[in-house]
Design brief:
CATH architecture of the largest domain: 2-Layer Sandwich
Shape: elongated
Number of domains: 2
Structural class: alpha+beta
Helix content: 40-55%
CATH topology of the largest domain: Beta-Lactamase
CATH class of the largest domain: Alpha Beta
Order of helices and strands: EEHEEEHHHH
Number of helices: 5
């Protein structure tokens, strides 16, 4: 599951933070940490960080160096997530963000409001992943009658941010009605 998406300057300054899962952490703490790990990797000659694995979660990284200051893209996910799928999502996010905001980054004076419209694109990219991965499983739960609809809804709200949970529930209910 995707918990968070971070887009930040290499200095650790957050540009975008999308919250989608059940793990929410202080954005400033995380972006500073992600930036420090990236800088550390460069300092020891490792060039860049691909991922950082912890006991129950991992961060998957991508970097863009086409702007005056490198931009770090990172996603926090459950450890079990297939890294190549998350890398694909990161590439989509990176290409879309840089494509839409390269000139903003080149002329940026510290106002993150220039990037707010990107949240809609980010939500859509993450939503596509959530639907492809989870909607069939939750649909099966609902139609199999092993759990009540209330139990499934509670489970969805436990696993996802409210925004994603509501969209997923609406999608499942729409499919059941059809």
């Amino acid at each position: 599951m995707i918990h968070n998406v971070y887009i930040l300057k290499k200095t650790g300054e957050s540009l975008i933070h999308g919250y989608y899962g059940s793990i929410e952490v202080d954005e400033t703490l995380i972006t500073g940490f992600l930036s420090a790990i990236s800088t550390f990797a460069e300092e020891i000659g490792a060039e860049s960080v691909e991922s950082l694995v912890m006991k129950n979660m991992k961060f998957v990284y991508a970097m863009d160096t086409s702007t005056p200051e490198p931009i770090i893209f990172a996603v926090s996910v459950d450890r079990e997530e297939e890294e190549y799928k998350i890398k694909d999502i990161l590439i989509k996010i990176k290409e879309k963000f840089i494509g839409e905001h390269k000139s903003d980054l080149e002329e940026w004076h510290g106002d993150i409001n220039a990037f707010k419209p990107f949240y809609e694109d980010l939500d859509e990219i993450v939503w596509e992943y959530v639907v492809s991965k989870y909607s069939k499983a939750f649909h099966k739960l609902v139609t199999n009658k092993e759990q009540t609809i209330d139990e499934v809804i509670a489970l969805i709200y436990h696993l996802f941010s409210p925004k994603i949970a509501q969209k997923l529930i609406d999608r499942i209910l729409e499919n059941i009605v059809q």
